[in-house]
Amino acid sequence: MAHGLSPEQIVFGLKFASDPQLSPDGERVVYSVSKVCGDCTKAYSDVWISNRDGSDARRLTRTGDRNGNARWSPDGSRIAYVSGREGKSVLCVLRLDGGEAEPIATHHHTIGTPNWSPDGNSIAYSAVTDPEFPDGPPSSGPAPIRFTDRLDYKQDTRGYLAEKRAQIFVADVAARTTRQLTSDRDDHIMPIHSPDGTKLAFIRLYPNAMRSQLEILDLASGSFERVTADEGSISYWLWYPDSQSLLVFGELAQDQQTDFFVQAADGSSWKRLTQDFEPTGGYGFGVGGGAMPITWLDAKTALFTGATRGRRGLWTIDVTNGEITEEKIWNQKDNGAGFDASGRYVAMVYASNDGAGEVEIYDRQTGEKSRITSFNAARFEETPVGEMTYHALERNRYTIDYWILKPADFDASKTYPVVMNIHGGPHGYYGWDFSWVDQALAGAGYVVVLANPRGSGSYGGDFARQVVGDWGGEDYLDLMAVMDAVEELPYVDATRTGVFGYSYGGFMSSWIVGHTDRFKTAVIGSPVVDLISFFGTADIGHCWGEYEFGGLPWTNNAWYVEHSPITHAHKSKTPAMIIHSEGDDRVPIGQGEQLFATLKKIGLQTEFVRYPGGHHLFMREGEPAYRLDALKRILDWFGRTL
Predict the structure, then answer these.
(1) Does residue 101 sit in the same domain as residue 246?
(2) What is the mean pLDDT of residues 87-100?
């Protein structure tokens, strides 16, 4: 019997630090800490501060249940942060020499990451507005009738949108007044002041955040300039010190290939700096925004973080010639970074197979990395986790990386049941990370296999594009080749193999059970099974699906049908449990319902677990009681069927 982390310990027993930001002088760091109490029904977070070495750590926020996105003022005397209070979002400023936090602006909907003006007098931010109900939704009477004339009328995690979109605001810190700067029908997020304080650069997202452009706003005249490609997608950017240009990292087209460009702020010119750059970056800005993982070291050199082949990396780029220099690669997940003004220190959050949720500081001058928090140290000392090992195989022109996570009390003389966990995306990726599901499985005595088949991110555009128009093709064969290799290991019981997958992983696990009976059981999470109905019902089906599936349902109908797992599900012989959130707009629950009906109709042992409300990411960010239940049900199912 293994003795790794239990579902209860994973959901309720860990704290997670995030978004560490160094003060301009590099002497202090602020970060958020989130936790779920054993007697609470939701997670809460607070802003903390400490010296760079971790000393004098203390909690700064006492009001509100979700405090975060803390950003330093240019002189390091104050922080701005966002606080969730009584169902509203509040922008606050706190002086660090004493006193209470001052509310600067309040909105009915989400406020994004604040950005100080260079003089420290104002703060730019995004906030969701609702033109139909500017003072908040009605508190009584029947629910409003929903009308729309646009395809992007809903979005996962946000629900039914109608015309609710994030707009750019500027708040005067002293006067506590706000001014709305944008108002069109798209989301606008992540405003960043130019160094001279005369302009704002921000992201315009459309449709449903599948594409993005940079826009430049002249603060004096109010004029806008859209400066990047219509079909592209921006991961992050950085103003040049002269405020005349921007260093941009992103895609020119929807092709999974991110590179560096220099873009004139007036839109007059642009220049490509890199070609087919492999590492990836960007942290799912969403409406709330996020940290920019890039900073200047001098007038021609920028420092940035990203992910390569499932690992965190730190690089520099010479913007005069596009030359990239690798500084450091770590066996851990890339979670963005915070920098001091000089670029000597880098603040990161540690996440790897043996722990997560701690702030680390990397000193580029000495090459030393130190962990300055210990929120979960006692838990991991008391309950060690299993070892993770890296492996790779060659198949059909590509190297396929995979990792094996072993139980905490692994004994090489024994044999263990194995579960392959298939990532989402399909352009997500596995690597040196701390995953709740994987740790729960390993803690219960399973060997867990995590593979990056072609299509996975962090390997460059060519590798990522191999899955486009080929879902269930070479990606499936890559995974089967990994299992062939794993089943040859002396400690693996090849007669007890299971598969788990969520989202695209749910597609693939559904595809697998319709094409092979090598797995004895399956847990299928939020599966895409009918590509035609997914196109019309998912929040991104109409735009993202057209790209991924190689066309529209009426122009590429035969492909849609043949590559839909539901077409082949009737051939399955594998017992399956399906888990799905009823509020999932990314993969609507009708997908799970179709699969359940088919598997039950052919007489398979099948269970369907539906979680009320929620959204696509409920297992990671949803109701804590549901997160716990899902982990326990996964273990129970594999325990009964494997």
Answers:
(1) no
(2) 92
Instruction: With respect to residue 361, please indicate whether it lies within any of the assigned structural domains.
Output: yes
CA distance 60 to 24: 19
| Residue-wise DSSP of 493-520 | EEEEEEEEEETHHHHHHHHHHTT---SS
pLDDT at 207: 86
Residue 39 has pLDDT above 90, yes or no: no
Strand order in the sheet with 416-422: 388-395, 398-405, 447-452, 416-422, 492-502, 521-525, 576-581, 606-611
| Structural domain boundaries enclosing 166 | 114-135+156-290
Give the CA angle between residues 335, 403, 486 to the nearest 5°.
165
Task: Tell which of 262, 290, 318 closes a domain.
Answer: 290
Please answer whether residues 348 and 329 qualify as being in contact, where contact means their C-beta atoms are separated by less than 8 angstroms. Answer: no
Number of domains in the chain: 3
Q: What percent of the chain has pLDDT over 70?
A: 98
CB proximity list for 265: less than 8 A, separation 6 or greater: 194, 199, 201, 216, 225, 227, 243, 244, 245, 246
Evaluate if residue 285 carries a pLDDT over 60.
no
Pairing of strands 398-405, 388-395: antiparallel
Do 204 and 260 fall within a single domain? Answer: yes
* DSSP line for 366-407: TTEEEE---TTHHHHHHS----EEEEEEEETTEEEEEEEEPP
Decide if 598 contacts 570 (C-beta within 8 A): yes
Express each pLDDT in 425-459 by its tens digit: 999 999 999 999 999 999 999 999 999 999 999 99
- Residue 405 and residue 368 share a domain: no
Question: At 8, phi and psi to the nearest 5?
Answer: -65, -40
Cis peptide before 426 (omega within 30 of 0): yes
- The token pair that represents 249 in the structure block: 């990292």
Same domain? For 493 and 599 the reply is yes
CA-closest candidate to residue 399, choices 410, 387, 391: 391
**Cα–Cα distance for residue pair 421/494, rounded to 1 Å:** 16
In a shared domain, residues 469 and 369: no
